[in-house]
Structures are given as structure tokens and as C-alpha cells.
Amino acid sequence: MHNEYIPFLSEIKEVIKHTSIEYTFRMTYEGKEVKPGQFFEVSIPKFGEAPISVSGISEGILDFTIRKVGKVTDEIFERYVGDKLFLRGPYGNGFDVNDYKNSELVVIAGGTGLSPVRGVVEYFSEHPQEVKGMTLVAGFKTPKDILFIEDFSRWKKNMEVILTVDCAEDDSACRIGLVTEFIPQLKLKDIKEAKAIVVGPPMMMHFTTQGLLKEGFREENIWISQERKMCCGIGKCGHCKIDDTYVCLDGPVFNYTKGRNLID
Amino acid sequence: MGYNLEKASMNDIFKTWSEEYAIYAPKCLVGKGAFSDTDSVRYSEIQDIEEIEFDKKSDFSFKEILTPISQTLFYFTEEEIKEAEVPKKGAIIFLRSCDLHAVKRLDEIYLKNGFEDYYYKRIREKVKFILMGCAYSYENCFCVSMGTNQIDSYDAAIEPYKKGYRIDNKLPAWEEVFSEHCEKELEVTPSYVTENIVKVNVPEGITLDIVKSEMWNEYDSRCINCGRCNFVCPTCTCFTMQDVFYTDNGKVGERRRVAASCMVDGYTDVAGGGAYRKKNGQRMRFKVLHKVYDYKKRFGYHMCVGCGRCDDVCPEYISFSNCINKLEGAMAEVKKNA
Amino acid sequence: MDLNTKQLRKNAFRVTKERGITASRIRVPGGHMEAKYLSMVQNIAETYGNGTVHITGRQGFEIPGIRYEDMPQVNVMLQPIIEGLDINQEKCGEGYSAAGTRNVTACVGNRVCPYGCYDTTGFAQRIEKAIFPHDLHFKIALTGCPNDCAKVRMHDFGIMGMTEPQYDKDRCVNCGACVKKCTKKSVGVLSTVNYKVERYADKCIGCGECVLACPTGAWTRSEQKLYRLTIMGRTGKKNPRLGEDFIKWVDEDSIIKIILNTYDYVAHYIDPEAPLGKEHIGYIVDRTGFEEFKKWALKDVQLPKMAEVYTPVYWKGIKY
């Protein structure tokens, strides 16, 4: 009988500091195949577990981009290269890149929302021929809050990248404005068939999907990723249930036709 | 096979069982009610059949044996983990029809729904259920409306009869011990109720629009979000994880899970300070719809088993069954306003 | 008219401001009784009184407007009440035996109130049986919980119900309800440590708010009924004051024994010149010193292990 609650140890190989409260922890991993958008329960004994989505997947390595917002993540930020964390997962459905192949794809991410979708962006950055076109709109509060800055120049080679901040004093590197403002400017050949992934804070997701629908995107062509209190990660504890949906099992990635009905 | 047994014989059988099983039944705990000089009927381990409270509904349900209120999952040091030990003995649980129907709901979540729960399964595998027949309905019961008034998936059924008990046994392994100790063998059919005073109508055709109904608002002020309704419910399964360290040795501790309630503050809190259902009316709506609407969408049958314990326990006299009976009107209301 | 006012007072009648007219005083120990006695009171008031009844400050009834010559008939009519309320009576059919010791009062207690830690009326009746009738001026009151709705601290002996909360940590889900209630409604002795609750027992007043708040039954009441005994509170002319704590976590038997011992103490030390032979016990204690009182009060008393005796005790209050 398998005990899903028992975590395994994973070593921190690298810590990449994006902002003062957002670091990526590059961790050793051997286990089941992991998809972008899936999450792990990351824990430190005594402090507890936190659901963290995978922000990068490579051979023997998983990236977790963590925002320092609570008891567990505060403690994780005290750890350095060579220290170990406990993991269990992968959990959730994640993004299936097959859903977007041979389509025009728009990825719109707000803040740390870029983490779960980063794997999808990476995939199509490496396999540009598998999509008909790709646009990434990434919005952050200020230039200081930008994540994965080093990735953007690489991504730009193979896709349209709109990097925007809500406000900036003096800035030339990125544009200023909410991600929603760029939706009408999207250059798409066939908006009815184009596909979109929206990930970010609840309000940002709400207005972004509304904007996409207004431009003519079809509901079934939009995917979102929901964040809830995923405590057990395996459909038992009930905290992430919304209507008949367990976000930890059926999500966190939802087609919008389902996602729009998730009323807490 | 059915049997007539005397009390003494039942206790002899208990002795035999106790080698392999702990026996749990509703028991009247004198003075353990919240108010002074009141009692509480709770599930406790028993040695003597006369400890069983046959005449009252238990305040808390049997679920505490399968899903302990506080359960240690494992012990840890900073880099090592040691799984908590499984109870050595199995369990025999005396329970009523509604509660045995609830076992199916617990199984649904803990054995299916994605992953199998290791800790639940290792207890569940070693549990036998003895049905306590219901000769009459108790206050607030609405099992007939929920279709949970009768069940035959028990290992044995028992009812007090004159000075002894009547048993219907379905477990081949127990045939010998019963026939050895019985006064006589006969056909026994467990009693069940065919009508409750409380009846509920779960309307067909509920849609998520019901969220917009005004009916939930009254609970914003009436409900005190104490969670009693959840903690007594035989079908509520939610829990929260806790990591604790032993104060005398800060490097050692345990991870455990404890029962959680969707009515209590903190249930939907996410790291960083967000919470999803702040108003008590929203929590009530979430709970009620789970019991009689969205659980069925996922699993094909209603979660609520109509035991009525939530109504028995609510200090604010909020009736869950009455709330169900408002759903039809609420649907009409939101359709009219659409 | 020739009347022995001393005697009629001992028979629970009063010398009123109106010449020739008395009032009958009916004591209801513990303040709770079967409703049928109300119609008997009504009957007396309408037959021999002026048709009115006063509800007294010590949970009795006073029937005014009775002519002195009707006292024997009133006593006959009082007999079923006296018997029904199980009042200690010297001679059957001759009315209440009353004098210095006042009716033992009680809040409604756990017969009705969720906060009540015990049956206040039941305990009051037990005290009644132990002490009545008595000429010495004793005022005793019982209240179900530390809310003190019965204002027992204004009495010579105040009995306050407590419960020693029992905590089953395995039933605790860390919902925080008890900690919140204790902090906001009581004395704030609960705190969350490591997802469980710790109680600072020394400061706990045993109000039972935690037990009432707990949704899982992790908190329950102690099997033994325990009390806080406050002493020597008083109203009155010279130095009204609140009673001070004497013993915390004391049991019923000890309380009764302490009260009986105090009768001996008062009998020994009372001012022989006291008007009508009555003196508030507190003034006697002021005179002898608390330690002397304590010596008498605790004589042969077997306190429960957890009982805490406060010593020395000082009183405040207003001094005129």
C-alpha cells in the first residue's frame, strides 16, 4: 500500500533571486514525469506544507518559484544551496501542450502567475514550429517585480513578447499598462481559433478573460489556472473543493468553460 | 442467520472478539454534556454490551473511529520520517442505518476520489459493522427522505429484544460463535423507520444560479460559524494538516491531520492573507449545496444521510433540513429574477 | 391590643408602619418552586391581606395588609407551602420559624441557565436544611457561575459555581473558539501552543466558557462540583463592601461545614450589646481578626486537594 503523505527529500541545487520576496529554488528530482502547471507540496518539518507549482522542468531538476508569503515559505527562504526540502507530488492536471499545438497561442500572465505557465512558454520557445504563432503578455507591478527577466530575451527570439508593468518611474525596457490593455492589440490571424492561457491573481484573470471574450476568443479556447488552499493535494482534505470540483485533482488548470463556473 | 442471545452470552462473544477487535459503540457519558449535569452520547470503546446506548441518537458520529479527530501521520526529525503505527486491533462498530450509509461516503472520498488514503485504508480494512436497528425515528431525523433508512450491507445487525438481543449475522466467520452462544436460531430482520416527522424535498434541477438567491443572507447573522454541524456530521471528511514540534526537543515533531470545518474561520485562507468565503451565509451555502447538490454531480448520489445531528447540535437553532426545504423556492426566485 | 413583637417577628410577621396591621413573609429557599404555591399565596393575600403581594429582595413573598388577629389563620394557610417547600419548622401549623438567618437565595442555576455550573436551588435547599431556623444574622446566596447574577459578593457567604475544565487534546481541532471566548468574555487564561490549547490553571476562574464554546467536546466539565466561596460582603450603614475570596475550588460538604462552624464562632464572639442580638458577621471578623475567624471556620473541614485558601483576606468597601 502506497503512502502518498510521506514526502521525499530533495536538495537545493541553486537559488535564483528574482525579487526580494520571489526566489526560484532549483531542486533535485527523480520521479514521475512532471507537466507545467502541476504542483508539489513542499515542506519543512515543524513548519508545514505549502502547495507550490512547478516553474521549470529539466533533466533531474525541478524549479519552484516561491513567493515569501507565510510560515512555510518564510522558512524556505532561510534555506540555501545544499540544504534539503521535503516534496511530495506531482499533483494536479497541469497544462497539456497538445491542447495548443498547431494553434495561435496567447499566454497572459500576471505576477507569479508566470511560474506555472513558464514550462509551456519554454516548450513552445524550444519548439516554435509546433504553434502557428505565439504571444506572451507578462505583466508585473513594477520593474522590480519582474520574474525570469533573463528568460525574456531568449523567448523574444521565437515569439511576440509584451512585457509590461503597472507603473514605473523611468523605464525603457518594458511597456507600462495593465495586461488587459494589450488584448485589443494582439495580432492574430484567426481569433476564433486562437487559444489563450490566463494565469494570475483572481481579478487579473477575471478582467483578462472578459477582454479575450470581447475580442472574439471562444470560451473553450481559453485555459486558466486556479489557486486555492490545496492542503493535502490528493482530493481528501476538502479545502480546495469548489462546486463538484477538487482543484487539486481536476485542476489547477481548467478550460474556461469549466473554470467560469467555479464559484467559491 | 438470525439468533436470540442473552446479555451474558453477548458479553462472552465480546470477550472473544476483543482478542482481535476493539469494540466501539454509542455510550452515554454522564456529565460530559456541554451544560452542567447533562450527558453526552459519544462513540467510545466498550467492554460490556450494556454500555451501549440503544435509546438515543449519538451526539457525535462513528466517523471518529475511521477518521480520528486528530491523527498523527508521521514523526519527523529534520531529515528523517517515521510513519505512525497502525492500531494493532481491528474495530467493530455499532451504528445505525444512516451512519452505515455514511461509510459509503467516507469510502468514496478516502478510498477513491483520486488517490487512496493510506491511513484511512489501513483502519478501514479491519473494521466490521454491526447495525443497530431503529425501532422509531429520533428528533430531526430525515433518513426516509434521503433514502438511508434501510441498509443490508452490514456484517451483523442487533436489536434489544426482551432481556436479551436479536442478531442477524451475515459474516460467515461469526456464525460459529453466534450459534454456540445463542438461545435459539430464528429469522431476524432489523427494524427500520418508514416515516420521519421531518421530511425534506431536494428539488431536481438546481443550478449554480442558486448562489444568487437571497435565502443565504439570513445565515450571515444567524450562524456563528462554530462548525458543530460539520464536526457531528457522519459524512464530513475535511481535515487540516498540522506540523508540531515537541517543545522539549525542538528538532523532533510530528505531522498530523485534524478535522476541519468549512464553517469555521480559516478554512479557505491561503498564504498571503486571502480567504474565499468570508460571510457565514456563503459558508452555509457551500455546505448545504455540497450535501445535496454538487457531491451528487460528482459521485452520483447525495452526500447527506439525513441523520439530523447538525440540527440536534446547532446552538443557534439553524435547521439544515429546513434549509434544504428552502432550495426549491430559492430556485424559483433566481429564475424569476434572471 | 397586646402583642409580643419579638415573638411575631420570629414567626415571620412584621411590625409595619400601620397600627394593627402586619405582613406575612414567605421564604422560598433557592428562589424556585412549583407554580401551585403561587395560588396559595394569592389566596392568603385575598383572604386576609389587602390583595397585593410584594416580591422581596431575598426571593420571598410579603403579603401586606394582614390584621394581627388573623395571624393564626394565615399560619394555617401557610402550612401546605411550608411543607411543600420543605422548610425547617419548629411546630407544625404555626407558621414559619424565622429570625436572624435570612432566606438562602439563588440564581436560576443549571435548572435553566446554560452557564450554571450546578443546581443552585438544590444546594440552597440543602443549606436551608442544615441551618434553619437560627437567630443569628447570616446572609447566604448562591450563584451558578462567576457571572454572579445572584450578587453573592454582597453576602456573608457567597457561593459561586465553578467547573474545572477537562481537556482532551485528541478531540481538539484548534478552531480557536475557546481561546477567543476566554479572552473576550472571561479572564484570558487560554492560549494556543503548537496547535493545542494551554490553560493557565492558577488564574482560571472555572466559568466554563471554554466548555460551552467547544464544538467537538474536547473541553468538558469536571466530575466533581467545585465552588468559589466568598465571605463577609455586606450592604448596610457603616461599611458596605464586597465579599472577598476565601476558598477557590471548595466542595459542597466543606461549605456547609464552614457555615455551621461560623455559627459557633459568631455565638462565641458576638457583641452581647448588639441591638436585637444581631450583628453582621463581617464586623465580628473585623474585631477578632481574620485568622481567628479562619481557625474557627476551618475546624474539622476536609478540603479537597485542589482547594486554595486565601490568607490573609482584606476587605475594602466604603467606610462612613
Unreliable spans of chain C are none
Structural class by SSE content of chain C: alpha+beta
Helix percent of chain B reads 25-40%
Report the biggest beta sheet of chain C as strand number plus sense, adding barrel if it closes.
6 strands, mixed
Query: Which pair has the most extensive contact?
Result: A-B, 44 and 53 residues
* Share in helix of chain C: 25-40%
Number of domains of chain B: 2
Tertiary shape of chain B: globular
Number of helices of chain C: 9
How much of the sequence of chain B is in beta strands? Answer: 15-25%
Order of helices and strands of chain B: EHEEHEEEHHEHEEHEHHEEHHHH
Oligomer: heterotrimer
Describe this structure in words.
The complex is a heterotrimer of chains A (264), B (338) and C (320). The mean pLDDT of chain A is 92. In chain A, a hairpin with a 4-residue loop joins strand 1 and strand 2. Helix content of chain A is 19%, strand content 33%. The longest helix of chain A is centred in the C-terminal third of the chain and has 14 residues. Chain A is globular. Chain A has two domains: 84 residues, Translation factors (Elongation Factor Tu (Ef-tu), domain 3), CATH 2.40.30.10; 163 residues, Rossmann fold (3-Layer(aba) Sandwich). Chain A is an alpha/beta fold and 264 residues long. Chain A is built from six helices and 15 strands. Chain B has two domains: 167 residues, no CATH class; 102 residues, no CATH class. Helices cover 30% and strands 22% of the residues of chain B. Chain B is built from twelve helices and twelve strands. The radius of gyration of chain B is 22 Å and the shape is globular. In chain C, strand 3 and strand 4 form a beta hairpin. Chain C is built from nine helices and 14 strands. With 320 residues, chain C is of the alpha+beta class. Chain C has a six-stranded mixed sheet, with helices on one face. Chain C has a four-stranded antiparallel sheet with strand order 1-2-4-3. A two-stranded antiparallel ribbon of chain C has the order 8-11. The two termini of chain C are 40 Å apart. Classes of the chains: A alpha/beta (264), B alpha+beta (338), C alpha+beta (320). At the A-B interface, strand 4, helix 1 and strand 14 of A face strand 4, helix 4, strand 11, strand 12 and helix 9 of B.
